[in-house]
Amino acid sequence: MIDLDRLIARIEQLGQVGALPGGGCKRLALTPEDAAGRALVTGWFRDLGLDVTTDVIGNTWAIRPGPGDLPPVVMGSHIDTVATGGLYDGTLGVLAGLEVIESAIEAGVETDHPLAVAFFTNEEGARFAPDMMGSGVAAGALPLDAMLASRGIDDATVDEALTAIGARGDAPVGALSPAAYLELHIEQGPVLESEGVQIGVVTGVQGISWTEFTVKGRSAHAGTTPMLMRRDAGHVAAAIAMEARAIATDFGPPQVATVGRMSLSPDLVNVVPERATLTVDLRNTDETRLAGAEARLFAFAEAAARDEGCTLTRRSLARFEPVAFDAKLVDDIATAADRLGYSHRRMPSGAGHDAQMFAPFCPSAMIFVPSRDGISHNIEEYTAPEDLERGARLLADVALARAGC
Amino acid sequence: MIDLDRLIARIEQLGQVGALPGGGCKRLALTPEDAAGRALVTGWFRDLGLDVTTDVIGNTWAIRPGPGDLPPVVMGSHIDTVATGGLYDGTLGVLAGLEVIESAIEAGVETDHPLAVAFFTNEEGARFAPDMMGSGVAAGALPLDAMLASRGIDDATVDEALTAIGARGDAPVGALSPAAYLELHIEQGPVLESEGVQIGVVTGVQGISWTEFTVKGRSAHAGTTPMLMRRDAGHVAAAIAMEARAIATDFGPPQVATVGRMSLSPDLVNVVPERATLTVDLRNTDETRLAGAEARLFAFAEAAARDEGCTLTRRSLARFEPVAFDAKLVDDIATAADRLGYSHRRMPSGAGHDAQMFAPFCPSAMIFVPSRDGISHNIEEYTAPEDLERGARLLADVALARAGC
Ligand SMILES: NC(=O)NCCC(=O)O
Ligand SMILES: NC(=O)NCCC(=O)O
Predict the structure, then answer these.
(1) How far is Cα A90 from Cα B288, in angstroms, rounded to an integer?
(2) Hey, which residues does B61 pair with through a beta bridge?
(3) Which site among B80, B258, B356 would you substitute to test the A interface, given the most A Cβ atoms closer than 10 Å to its Cβ?
């Protein structure tokens, strides 16, 4: 009871919004491209006759009215992308949720709990930190005011961006109160493909730590300034980047460390940089290990700055402890996968997801489908049609069961 | 016969053009600020009744007509600055040259060779590579066409920028043919100040090598991509930056190495960078050592890229071998300093200068005055009035003697 062609057609149509020349797309949160994506998806919600609501941070959900006033079983994810995004990250969870509802309507299937589909604002965290911002606000885990004040990579605040694209709704924080939350997502990593497994039954999400370091040194002449007299902010930044890699190596998997952003000022070939900023993304499934990685990185950064005669400031952009999903819901997914004959394995998620923000407040869980070559946040991101179908069917199965049909 | 107040007033007035909020100034080559600086200085040239000429790359010189048609003794430097520039780098050489001519006119001193003062386009190399571009073209050492096609940090070409600010003149390459070239400049380094010496008699300029590296890897998800599967262009860039520092340390003085520019793409906190560019500025007074530093850096960069599964391209932005100034002119400067009672020492220049471009074609030399704390390419750049005066007097002495008076 899933129309795969319709699902794929929608994924491709949404992929045209913010399409990049070489494939993939760029729909950074709350940009005009995101606005166009929101309009397209909300149009599909309305075409089905669903009740559409948008809250004060732009989260949007559509409910198929049910017989009573039980809370809805929500299927959701996000439609924003990174700057080098693919077609599936986030959109699959939203459009598969829509497909489940449309199929249920077509099949005349009624449920005790209403079915709902949602997309949340700025899940990627690529424009505004932290990631999972909209779902974090919706679930009450992140304070609305601080999030509205978050300044993006282009210096606009979330507040300004919401206004600019007209994405602010009037539903208050807490207006969405799911009976359960389910998210289908591409794995974005290599595990399922390399093991030849069809479905990932996601047990939880690893902890995430994002730190921005700003190093201040002194601009100086590249030709005349003896090495020992330099206070080179760029050198400290490079040293921190190397240490991040060393931490990942020394800790071993599942520790990962990424320097995604770096910039120097004045950024001129013959001027010793007076300022450098960089971000370090650290993740681990184990909170103690993650805190240990942070401690080592922070201590190193302080010492490196001091040795170079620079000053260092450090700002936390995101910090989420590891999250465990609802044991019963996780079991239900595994059982349903068995019933459908899909091979599956339990696994933690390497990426952050909206589901983790709901996990403390309602039974929440996730389903992964394979990513070709484990690639995501890249225009080459791809998941095969049969995997999309298995994921959507399993989502339908679990959601309908939860909703009571 | 130098009016120090007039000289300082002009330095300060020119320093108002492109003034930065905290002091210092930003007059990147061929920007509107540079245009305003050119207009101001050219106005002073004309006020003195000098013959002003501008050539096809914007170099501008002013000649005090002499009795016959001997070639001029040229005093020159540049008026462009880096983005965090001070008030003295370049401007001192130009405005002291102007002061020497004005004082000579006032004193009624006639010379056999005409006296001339010049400023050359894009000496800093901060907007367009290479540095010493205008003087290199004027002296016939750099090809005009390639220089006009050079693309700046803002993507405009020299050709476009010349047109945009109307700085292109009609004098052809080679129109300026000095009998001798003399340049007064701040040291921009710590040697004179730390040794308590008043004048640097510059024997030559160290070799300069500027390389831009572009690393291409693969964008990937920061949370899901195992460390061993990454092709992280940013990691390679950081490793190259660390190696540049290690080369300077291992080679020891006078080897210096600077990473002035670095940028990552897509430059997002949770995306492994797919592209990184960085520049490395290497300098040494010894050509063999400089070539050795380049060889080690290039080999390291290739290996680092290969180890990370990335590709590397490398582009030379500037390459100048060490230059020796004219022995007789250097001796003349030392002798004149003795006569004036100024303490002095011979020293190589750490920075590149327009004088080095003329050195192969006519007797050329330079005079340094101390820089406070050795700081330059920084808004704190400062040279005390008495040092400015000594430098200008010595310049006058040597220039008038050369010109025959
Ligand atoms: N799923 C996903 O790519 N989320 C972005 C947040 C993160 O994990 O960095
Ligand atoms: N004098 C000076 O700062 N020149 C700029 C060229 C360089 O040495 O990088």
Answers:
(1) 56
(2) B53, B118
(3) B258
Q: Furthest-apart CA pair in chain B: how many Å?
A: 79
CB B176 within 8 A of CB B74: yes
Q: Are strands A73-77 and A115-119 parallel, antiparallel or unpaired?
A: parallel
For residues B119 and B53, give the distance between their C-alpha atoms in angstroms, rounded to a whole number: 11
pLDDT score, position B68: 79
Measured at the alpha carbon of residue A115, what is the angle toward residues A112 and A117, in degrees to the nearest 5? 170
Cα angle for residues A167, A33, A212 (degrees, 5° grid): 85
Contacts of A125 in chain B (CB under 8 A): 269-270
Predicted pLDDT at B67 = 78
Please enumerate in sequence order all residues whose Cβ is within 8 A of that of B196, keeping only pairs 6 or more positions apart, or say none: B343
Task: Note whether B187 and B371 are within 8 A (CB).
Answer: yes
Give chain A's length: 405
Closest approach of chain A CAs to the CA of B153, in angstroms? Answer: 8
Instruction: Provide the residue type at A166 as one letter.
Output: G
Contact indicator for B258, B244 with CB cutoff of 8 Å: yes
**Per-position DSSP letters for A85-130, written without gaps between them:** B-SSTTHHHHHHHHHHHHHHHHHT---SSPEEEEE-TT-S-SSSSS
CB contacts of B188 in chain A (<8 Å) are: 221, 223-224
Kindly report the number of other CB atoms within 10 A of residue A107's CB atom.
12
Answer yes or no: do B221 and A261 touch at CB < 8 A. Answer: no
Q: What is the number of the ligand 1 atom nearest to the C-alpha of A283?
A: 8
Which amino acid would we find at residue A174? G
Burial of residue B2, with CB atoms counted within 10 A of its CB: 0-12 exposed, 13-18 middle, 19 or more buried: buried
Residue B325: count other Cβ atoms within 10 Å of its Cβ. 25
CA–CA dist A218, A226 (Å, integer): 13
Q: Which ligand has its closest atom nearest to the C-alpha of B130? A: 2
CA atoms within 13 A on the CB side of A349: 29
What pTM value is reported for the model?
A: 0.94
Residue A246 neighbours by CB under 8 Å, 6+ apart: none
CA nearest neighbour of B368 among B384, B387, B352 = B387
| Segment B301-323, tens digit of pLDDT | 999 999 999 999 999 999 999 99
Confidence of residue A163 (pLDDT cuts 50, 70, 90): very high
Which residues 6+ apart lie within 8 Å of B2 measured at CB?
A: B99, B100, B103, B389, B392, B393, B396
Q: How far is the CA of B124 from the centre of ligand 2 (A)?
A: 5
All residues of chain B having their beta carbon less than 8 Å from the beta carbon of residue A236 are: none
Q: Which two tokens stand for residue A33?
A: 């491209």
Q: What residues of B are in contact with residue A350 (Cβ under 8 Å)?
A: 221, 223-225
A259–B238 C-beta distance less than 8 A: yes
| A294 in Cβ contact with A283 (< 8 Å) | no
The whole-angstrom separation of Cα A291 and Cα A282 is 9
Instruction: Identify the DSSP state of A373.
Output: G
Residue A335 CB: number of other CB atoms within 10 A?
14
DSSP state letters, A145-211: HHHHT-B-TTS-BHHHHHHHHT---SBPTT----SEEEEEEE--SSHHHHHT-SEEEEEEE-EEEEE
* Cα distances (Å, whole numbers) of residue B189 to A249, A270, B82: 41, 14, 16
Both tokens of B296, joined, read: 């080690």
Instruction: Give dist(CA B41, CA A112) in Å, integer.
Output: 83
A-B Cβ pairs (cutoff 8 Å, strict): 268
Q: From the alpha carbon of A224, which atom of ligand 2 is closest? A: 8
How far is it, in rounded angstroms, from Cα B374 to Cα B383?
10
Q: Quick count: other Cβ atoms within 10 Å of Cβ A215?
A: 29
B351 lines ligand 2 (CB under 6 A): yes
pLDDT digits (tens, 9 = 90+) for A305-346: 999 999 999 999 999 999 999 999 999 999 999 999 999 999
C-beta A270 within 6 A of ligand 2: yes
Q: Which one-letter amino acid corresponds to residue A242?
A: M
